[in-house]
Every structure is written in C-alpha cells, then in structure tokens.
Amino acid sequence: MPKLIIDNIPVEVAEGTTVLEAAQSVDIPIPHFCWHPALGKAGACRVCAVKMLDGPVKGIQMSCMLPVMEEMVVSTTDPEAMAMRRSVIEWLMINHPHDCPVCDEGGECQLQDYTIAGGHGIRRYTGTKRTHVNQQLGPYIEHEMNRCIQCYRCVRFYQEYAGGTDFGVMGSAGRVYFGRFQDGPLESPFSGNLVDICPTGVFTDKTARFRARYWDYDMAPSICQECSLGCSITPVARYRELLKIIGRRNDAVNAWFICDRGRFSAATPVNNPLRPRTPRIEGREAGWDSALDAIVQRVSELLKNHGPGCIALVGSQRLSLEGMALLPELSTIMLADAPCYFCDERERVQTSAAVTGLTGAISASMADIRQADCIAIVDVDLMAEAPMMVLAVRQAWRSGAGVYSIGETVDLPCECTAVATLDDVPLATAQRPVIICGTSGFTTARQYVSLPMAKGEPVKISCILPGPNSFSAALFSHEHAAISLEQAISSGRIKGIIAVEADIPPELSADIPVIAALDWRNTDTVAAAQIILPTTAWAEMDGTCINNEGRAQHFRKTMNPGLPVHGLNPAGHPSHLHRTIPPGGDLRPAWQIIDELIVRMGGTRTTEQLNGKWEKLRHLDAEGDGLPIYEL
Amino acid sequence: MKIVSDITAIMTGMWITWKHIFRRPVTIQYPEQKRTPYPRYRARIVLTRDPDGGERCVACQLCSAACPVDCISMQAAEGVGGRRYAEWFRINFSRCIFCGLCAEACPTLAIQMTPDFEICERDIMALVYEKEHLLIDGCGKSSEYNYYRHAGIGVTQPRGTGNEERLPVDVRGLLP
Q1: Nearest CB to A213 within list B61, B78, B159
Q2: What are phi and psi of A407, to 5 degrees?
Q3: From B158, which residue of chain A is nearest by alpha-carbon distance?
Q4: What is the mean pLDDT of residues B28-52?
Q5: Which residue in chain A is spatially nearest to B92 when comparing CA positions?
Q6: Which residue(s) pair with A551 in the sheet?
Q7: What number is the ipTM of this complex?
C-alpha cells in the first residue's frame, strides 16, 4: 500500500491506483474528460495535470496515467499545474462551437463546467474553427461532431466495453472523427450510453431533444421496470412528461450503464395519452368514491349469490411490493382464496421454484458475474430477456472468463463456446463460476451448486425472471400457497376478478361476469373491465421491487401524475386556468386503492406499509445498493 | 440654553419649508402629463427578431434560470433545419420585478427591456403574456447580431460557412 501526500493530505491507497483516484478518495477533485471509472485511462485530454513536487517522478504529470508510488508529493493547486489545465481548456475550446444555448448538454456538460471552473471566459484565439459533417445515427441519438474534444470515451465504451463494431474513430491529426463508416442507426443495444458518457454534447438523446434543461428536470433515484435485473436509473421528467432515462451508478447491479431498451422504451407507456386517467364504471367516468363503492357492492352481490371463494384477486409481476403485501389482506376480507400473483400456471411453478431455490450464498449479483471466471448460459436469450446481463458477461470475458452456452444459441458480443450440457462446462476447476439460466433451466442448474469444487467458491446462479418484480410475486405466492389464475378459473368457482396491474390473457377472463381493473397501462384487461381504477405509474410513486438476484430496491417518485402539458392546450401554451389537481392527475398508487377497498369492506386502514418481515425495507435508501432479502 | 436651541431648530425647519414653496415643483401631473423614460429604462419585456427576420429566442432557458421571481417559462422545440425555437414562451408580468437579469442572461439578445412601463390591468390574468404578445417585428436595441451566424453549427447556413468557421474537414483525406 503506497503512501503519498496530495495537497498536504497523507493518502494511503492500494497498489495500482492512479494519482487521480487517490486524490478523489480524499475528496480532492481533479478535472478529467477522458478518464472514466468504468473505462479507465486514455491520457487523451491532458486536463488532469498535477505537479509532482517530490518523489520518483517530478514536474507536471497527467494524474490519470500515473500509478501511485511511495513518497510521492502531489500538488493539484500549484500555479504551474493550474496554468497547464487552464491552457488545456483554452485549446479544447478553440474548436468548440459557441452553441451552448442550443445544445441539449448545456447545464449538464462537463466541458462547460470545467471551462467555467478554470476561469476561461474570453476567447483569445482569433482564427477559424474546425467543422465536421454530422451523421444520422438512428432515431435515438443525435450527433454533433463540431462539439467533439477527442476524449475517446465514446469509442472506448462502444468497442471495448460494449463490443460494438459499427462505430469507431477515424481520420488523423486535427481531423479525428468519431462515428460510423456511413450514416445509419447504431447497432449496439447499449448505444444510448454514449449520451451519458460523452463529456460534452456530441451525442445527445434525440427522444428528448430540446425538451428541458438540467436545472428544471424532475429527477429521482429509480429502478428500471423493463426486466428483472432492476438496474438503477434516473428518470427525467418535465411538465408532467417523462422525457428520458439516465443510467445511475450501482456497483452491485448495473455498475454505470443501462441498455437501450430501458433507456428508450420506458417513457412511452408512461406518457401514453390513452392511459386510464379517471375511474370508470361501465365506460362512463365516475368519481373515486362511486367507483370504489361499485366494486364493494358488486363483490357483496357476488358473495351473496355464489358464496365465498367466487372472487379472484390478481396481482402481477410488475406490481410494487407494497401493493403485493396488501393483497392477501383484501382477499381474506373478500372471503376469497389467496391472491393469484401469476396468471400462467407453468410460470408460477417455475418462478416459485427458482425463487425458493435461491439463497444468499448462491445467488449471483451482476457484480459477481462481472468478476466471474467461468460463465455458463443455460437456455436463455439474454439479449431479449436481460440485456444488461450481456454487458456483465462481456466484462467477465474481457477479464479472461470462459463463456459457455447450452441450448439455444445466443448472439453475444464476446467469444462463447457452445456445449451440450452443463457437464461440459469446467465449473469445478473455476475459481468463481456462475450459471445464468432462465426459470425453465433453474432446476437443472441448481443441481450443480452442490458439486464438490476443486477450488474456489461454490457455483453461483443468476436466474432471469419474467418480470421486474417476479421475485416478490413468487415469494408471496409461495408464502400464501397461492395458485395461478389459470388454475383458479379452471375450478369454475370464479365469478369476479379484481386485477391489480395484471395482464390477464383475454381467453382466461372471457367468461367472467365481473371484472374490475386497477392499472396505469392501457391493457386488454382494462379494456375488458367494467370498473376501472387508474393507478400511478412507477415514475409517479414511491415503491419497492425485488430483482432477479433477490435484492430489494426502492424507487422514488419522479414526477406528479397528470396529462403531459405538451400538446394539452390547442392554443400551444399551457392553460391559464388554476387547478389544484392537473388534468388527468387524480391517480392513486395501487396499494392505496387496495387499502381503500379494505376499509370499505370493513377492514382497518393500514397506517404503515410493509409490516412484519418487510419492516426493514421501509426506510431503504433509494440511492444505496439495495438490500438482499436473504438478510431479512 | 435649551429654549434657544429649540427655537433655532424650529426656525431652521421653517426656513427650509419656505425655501421649497418658491421652487419649481418636480411632481408632474401623471397621467395627463407624461415623462419620456430613457432608452435603457427597464420596463415591459419583448422578444426580438434577428436581422433576417427569424425569431432570436432559442428557448435556452437561461432567462428563466436567471429570473429571481420565476416569472418566465417556456418550452423549446425543433423547427425547420434543426433550428431551436420557443414553442410557447410566457412571462407573468404580475410577478416580474423588472430587474433585467433575463435580458442580461440572454445569449442571443432576444429578450430585451423596453421603456414602456404602463402595463396595468384590472384582470390580473391579463398580465400573463404569451409569445404572441411578446414577440416584436424588429431587432430592438441591437440591429446587427445574428446568433446562428456565430453558433458554430450549421442551422441557418450550410455547415462550415458561418462566421469564424472553416469548411468541414475531409475525414478520409490523408494530407497533413
């Protein structure tokens, strides 16, 4: 552990750490463009210059390129180093356009911040600026090459980190160009990260082009609801419209990045103008009270005519933990059987088997996968079901792990050996082996966990689940010995369904006389329901979900619900009317509606959410790593 | 002697009063009589156009960020050729304190203060000005500045032909 002194502060860091990281560890910021924690160093931008006052190397040095050595004395505030950094910014700005007012990066731009911080306000150079021709990079990413400062972050991420092949760097000297060989959409399913990683505005999010500025954003730490991995995200909203999604750092899960599916497809259903926005009875708009009373009345009628057990309460794998936890109480008070958290029987059996078979010791986090040295992918199309897992597998492969696939061939951005069975994978000789499987392959994969290992840790398993909160659904399903909706309906007793954010296949609910739907999506179930209660989307509420690894994570409310201001008033500008609730904004989280139904059926109101064994999750830090539920 | 100083004080006051009685009054009979404010007087805000007639405002949000009373709001949108403009632009003059920070912050010289201070209304909602009330057909105080000529990205002209720019480089060229 080398010891060094940075700005008179003694620092002791691990061997191989750079001076820049050592300074960051004691909260001394050093400006940097090309260095990135996930991508490492390139030494391209020269802005992290520090002065070495004493030690093995002396003089001005690039702190990102220099590993710490014993007896180094570093000054970040030395006049010579400061003059160097100021000059670097000045020459980076020589070719940078003066278009911050029309640039979407303005306000969240690292170059802008460091230019202002370095005190470079007046342009001294009177010559002309280099310009480039931009490329059309598809519907998601806007390209403005004039703004480029040649930090190489984009190409290092795209080619090295994500394994993309259609984007690179070309040209020489002052003509260096970052783009594709020809115009065309970027092929990598992780291309959206170029937006996050570019320190200036070369790549900006086309879907949120010119929509808002950083200081006006409604933002909150949140969890992606697109697949079961539960990557950390920061949704960005403005004027009640979900504009875009930014990746958020979580070293235990997604590290720094997110996939394009999470980034570009999550906002559309939330902004959908056809979303249920008002309670409805038989298609007519109704107040909350009358809609809730209508449910209670119909449930009572059904109970009178058909006796207990004629109501099915249906949860889903996208309902938050808070809602799931209240459903059993509602089913008891409605004299129904345990709530159906799954519609499909096979899905219930397989997911429950996977979730109950996982323990804290064998459940692999995505961090475990990035550090694995042998990965077996069993019968699961990762790119379709959990894209970020592909990126994690690639990081392991880059560090030398062997990647094996069993069953259907998967197209991965890394070398992958196809083998017949798990027996052909050298799990026993690996130090940190991981099996990635779907719910269908879990039982097979689970047998390999108890194999005698020659060395290293036991085999860990990462099981990709069908939905964002499948883990919780399976836990509750198992705890309450619940059956699937398919089974419940086949018994013939079900006369009424209360679907809570559930996607019930139309053929299952076809013969059910009474259907009430609580949902924020415009689903077939909502279309078939006689009573509709609109709920808030994940971005409009606080909630908890458990990812495929068993990690409970809290997501916070990003924006107030309501129809987006954009396009609401034909005059083009927002209305001049004052309202207490915005149009389409009278929505409630699903758990509140369930609670209200419990009260109206004669139960007691829930004062605190997440009781009993879930109590530890009440104050889960949304910005933290989450909590593995095995610790509860 | 206390009485002497008291009398002196009263006499001094009276003297000043009498002196002002014979001076020309500074008060004018507004609104019958009106003063012309100086050109740089800070009153009603307008949005100006560039010399080519295009809207100067690019809805960069700097004025709304600078505004200490949060009376400016807008939404940017993309126009023809990638030009950024304000889809709607609103100044709530019932809240505005006419400090001029918005005009100072404006990088395109779009938002400018005029000397027109007579904007009283009986209905307070009539003080909420939308873009159609704010946008004027002229350059205001600066008749020459055209932001997009200097911006460094080709929006109103082909790429590389703006002021202080070279033609786009040939990436595939091998010459030094």
Answers
A1: B61
A2: 85, -140
A3: A133
A4: 93
A5: A576
A6: A628
A7: 0.88
CA-CA-CA-CA torsion sign (B114, B117, B118, B122):
positive
pLDDT (0 to 100) of residue A171: 86
Which residue has 């609104």 as its token pair? B31
Note whether A98 contacts B176, CB cutoff 8 Å. Answer: no
Distance from CA of B63 to the nearest CA of A (A): 11
Q: Which amino acid is at A118?
A: G
Residues of A in contact with B173 (CB under 8 A): 175
Q: Which residues contact A524 (CB under 8 A, 6 or more apart)?
A: A503, A504, A505, A506
Say what the pTM is. Answer: 0.91
Whether the predicted pLDDT of A505 surpasses 60: yes
Q: Is the dihedral of CA A465, A466, A470, A473 positive or negative?
A: negative
Considering only CB atoms, which chain A residues are within 8 Å of B152? 96-99, 129, 131, 146
* Residues B85-108 pLDDT 10s: 999 999 999 999 999 999 999 999
**A369-394: b (≥16 Cβ within 10 Å) or e:** bbbbbbbbbbbbbbbebbbbbbbbbb
Mutation target among A102, A142, A207 for the B interface, most CBs of B within 10 A: A102
Q: Pick from A97, A164, A155: which is nearest to A129 by CA?
A: A97
Class of domain B35-150: alpha beta
| Mean pLDDT for the stretch of residues A462-487 | 94
| Cβ-contact A13, A1 below 8 angstroms | yes
Q: Indicate the pLDDT class of residue A570, thresholds 50, 70 and 90.
A: confident
E strands, chain B, are: 45-47, 72-78, 84-92, 111-113, 128-129, 165-168
pLDDT per position as a tens digit, A5-63: 999 999 999 998 999 999 999 999 999 999 999 998 899 999 999 999 998 999 999 99
Decide the pairing of beta strands A3-6 and A72-75.
Answer: parallel
Nearest C-alpha in A relative to B131: A573
Quote the Cα angle for A539-A543-A545, to 5°.
Answer: 105
Residues of A in contact with B172 (CB under 8 A): 170-171
Distance from CA of B54 to the nearest CA of A (A): 15
Given a cut of 70, whether residue B72 has pLDDT beyond it is yes
Distance from CA of A183 to the nearest CA of B (A): 14
Q: What is the pLDDT of residues A612-624, one digit of tens each?
A: 888 889 889 999 9
What pLDDT, on the 0 to 100 scale, is given for residue A609? 83
Residues with Cβ within 8 Å of residue A256, at least 6 apart in sequence: A36, A37, A38, A193, A196, A247, A249
Placement of tokens 């379709």 in the chain: A384
Closest C-alpha among A326, A362, A205, A294 to residue A590: A326
| Contact call for A171 and B107, based on CB within 8 A | no
Q: Which of A210, A238, A579 to mutate to test the interface with B (most CBs of B within 10 A)?
A: A210
Whether residue A506 is preceded by a cis peptide bond, meaning omega within 30 degrees of 0, is no
Is A556's pLDDT higher than 90? Answer: yes
Structure tokens at A554: 């809290």
